[in-house]
From TrEMBL:
Alphabetical keyword list: NADP, Oxidoreductase
Cross-referenced PANTHER family: CARBONYL REDUCTASE 1-RELATED, CHAIN DEHYDROGENASE FAMILY PROTEIN, PUTATIVE (AFU_ORTHOLOGUE AFUA_3G15350)-RELATED
Domain of life of the native organism: Bacteria
Family: Belongs to the short-chain dehydrogenases/reductases (SDR) family.
Protein name in the entry: SDR family oxidoreductase
Keyword Nucleotidyltransferase: no
Length: 235
């Protein structure tokens, strides 16, 4: 395997995603930073112009065709992807009570947060299996944790993250025979982004920290966990 690692980050054009790209690229990792349209990628293009190893690509993870075309382009250029960060996400039912939830909104949320992540794993994990190396980080949320539910609302978003946690744990089990492929989920905390809102106390750079830490774990580290602030968080 080459010394230079390759990472994909979805939803990389803003928020926590773009900070994740910046932190990985600063470590010399070749980042394939994805957005849904080139018009949204000026900040990523600027990083590449500064000399950071950032390559901009397009993918809409809610579309199987878009993920397939993206995977074909990437795997033609890079034989394997070392790190997959499933960061893209939507929160379409903030504070909506379950009894008032439009089921189409729940479907749209699952399409991105859960099925989109699975599509990306299905597209890229086989190349990790072939290489015998991989770090998969699914960006989850403490709001998906079932251990400490203190308030109702946001069922679509929260259940999509609960299911994402389940995907993380099950995929880690399925990859047990590949000891150097680690699958973990991260909780960024409450972060000031379009999704998190203006009142959030954390910066996007702080929100990206645990994800980047999981993405760069050394061989022999744990797999199949949920982490916040670099520590295990209850499912
Ligand atoms: N902010 C928080 O407080 C917080 C807390 C816990 C967890 N998280 C999680 O952290 C991750 C990043 O959130 P953020 O706060 O940075 O949100 P954000 O600023 O709203 O960014 C979301 C990103 O996801 C992309 N995206 C949405 N739908 C997509 C699709 N179908 N295909 C590809 N990309 C898509 C967006 O692209 P467009 O620009 O094209 O829409 C954008 O780049 C999410 O998974 C979120 O659930 C955030």
């Amino acid at each position: 395997m080459s010394e230079i690692k390759t990472a994909i980050v979805t939803g990389a054009n803003r928020g926590i995603g773009i900070e994740t790209v910046r932190q990985l690229a600063a470590r010399g990792i070749q980042v394939i930073a994805t957005a849904r349209s080139f018009e949204q990628t000026a900040a990523l293009q600027a990083m590449a112009k500064e000399g950071l190893p950032v390559l901009v690509e397009l993918v809409d993870i809610s579309s199987s065709a878009s993920v397939a075309a993206f995977a074909e382009r990437v795997l033609q250029e890079f034989s394997a992807v070392d790190i997959l960060i499933n960061n893209a996400g939507v929160a379409l039912d903030k504070w909506v009570p379950a009894l008032g939830l439009d089921i189409d909104v729940w479907r749209q949320t699952m399409e991105v947060n859960l099925y989109g992540t699975l599509r990306m794993c299905q597209a890229f994990v086989p190349s990790m299996q072939a290489a015998g190396y991989g770090r998969i980080v699914n960006v989850s949320s403490e709001l998906g944790s079932l251990t400490d539910i203190q308030m109702g609302s946001s069922l679509a978003y929260r259940s999509s993250k609960t299911a994402l946690n389940s995907l993380t744990a099950l995929l880690a089990c399925e990859l047990k025979n590949y000891p150097d492929i680690l699958v973990n989920a991260s909780c960024p905390g409450w972060v000031k982004t379009e999704l998190g809102g203006e009142d959030a106390p954390l910066t996007p750079a702080q929100g990206a920290d645990t994800t980047v830490w999981l993405a760069t774990l050394p061989s022999g580290s744990a797999s199949g966990g949920l982490y916040r602030e670099r520590a295990v968080w209850p499912w």
